[in-house]
Write a structure and sequence with these properties.
alpha+beta, 35% strand, 144 residues
């Protein structure tokens, strides 16, 4: 199982999304800033590192609050299952900018309550669960 962290940066009712590019994973789709947890780092520090790398901003890991845990089934036969941790990021230093142009084509502020249709499907599902106050999302599993 792979662990990934996601940052929810808001400006009022707007949410910051990034258009993925160049990675071969959901290229062309929108996603909140995210990345894998590396070895020898806690999840909040991993989030701060990812936001620094992807958006050139600084965040206090202790200020970020866990909003949702998502357990995702593998998307393809060769993929891993994921434990995704979505964090609210209440404040940051700097202005979000593309820090990894080979992996991101654009940044855009969108209506948090109505993500665009080209947002990665599991991210849209996660955003709806965060808005509903649901702490756990099971995605892609045959549940029932």
């Amino acid at each position: 199982m792979v662990v990934a962290v996601y940052g929810l940066l808001r400006d009022g009712d707007r949410l910051l999304l990034m258009r993925r590019a160049g990675s071969g994973y959901h290229d062309g789709e929108l996603c909140v800033p995210a990345g894998h947890v590396d070895g020898n780092e806690d999840v909040a520090s991993a989030l701060a590192r990812e936001l620094r790398e992807e958006l050139t901003i600084a965040v206090d890991p202790d200020a970020c609050r866990l909003a949702l845990v998502a357990h995702r089934a593998p998307e393809t036969a060769g993929d891993h299952e994921y434990l995704d941790l979505f964090f609210e990021v209440p404040r940051w230093d700097g202005t979000p900018a593309i820090g990894e142009p080979a992996k991101c084509a654009e940044l855009c502020w969108v209506d948090a309550a109505d993500p665009p249709a080209d947002t990665v499907a599991y991210v849209t599902a996660a955003l709806h669960e965060v808005a509903a106050g649901t702490p756990l999302l099971r995605y892609g599993w045959a549940i029932g």
